[in-house]
Amino acid sequence: MSNTTLIRPGPARDAWLRRRYVDEQAEVGDLAVEAGVGRMTIYRWLDRARIALRPHAGASLSRDWLAEQYAIIRSVNRIARLAGVSPSTVRDSLSRYGLLPPPTDERAPVAAARYLAGHPLTAVAEELQMSRRVLTCWLRAMQVPIHPPGRRRRPGTRPDGAQ
Fold first, then answer.
1. Angle 39-48/28-35 helices, nearest 10 degrees?
2. Domains of the chain: which residue ranges?
3. How many CA atoms lie within 13 A of 35 on its CB side?
């Protein structure tokens, strides 16, 4: 099938996507190269063709399995190798499930106080010279609720708008 046929919306493109992505389990990156488009275009085409995405490796790290492995192994890198994912995926999952112990670094209480005072995550991370990912893991380990990105509160204001 030629690239021009693939780029044109319609039944031929949808059939190609189903055959390659669903039946042959081709990777999105491979499909993008074949079609001469970017990966995001392939994701858009899959969505328009109503083809469900396959779950990625991170989805297989259940809370129970991860808790058991962390209790036994205590090494993020070894768990990552065992699960076939990156260490950051394991660390993020441990953090998201609340399985990491609270940080012992002296900056941790400062980080929590600044974040709870309404300072953006990025600003707190920069101030303490750490990555946003590490800061997020710390805050989760300290059971500080992480609000989604978007509208930010001004420092010193409460979530309900009162001063």
1. 100
2. 3-48, 57-96, 108-141
3. 27
* Number of residues in the chain: 163
pLDDT digits (tens, 9 = 90+) for 20-69: 999 998 888 889 999 999 888 998 899 899 888 876 544 468 888 899 98
Q: Who contacts 135 (Cβ-Cβ below 8 Å, separation ≥6)?
A: 111, 115, 121, 124, 125, 128
* Short-list 13, 58, 52, CA closest to 31: 13
Q: How far is CA 152 from the centre of its chain?
A: 21
- 61-74: burial string, b at 16+ Cβ within 10 Å, e else: beeeebeebbeeee
- What are phi and psi for residue 77, nearest 5 degrees? -65, -45
> What are the pLDDT digits (tens) for 134-154?
898 889 888 898 877 665 555
What is the spatial distance between Cα 32 and Cα 56, in angstroms, rounded to a whole number? 18
What pLDDT score was predicted for residue 5?
59
From the CB of residue 42, how many other CB atoms can be counted at a distance below 10 Å? Answer: 24
Does the global pTM surpass 0.85? no
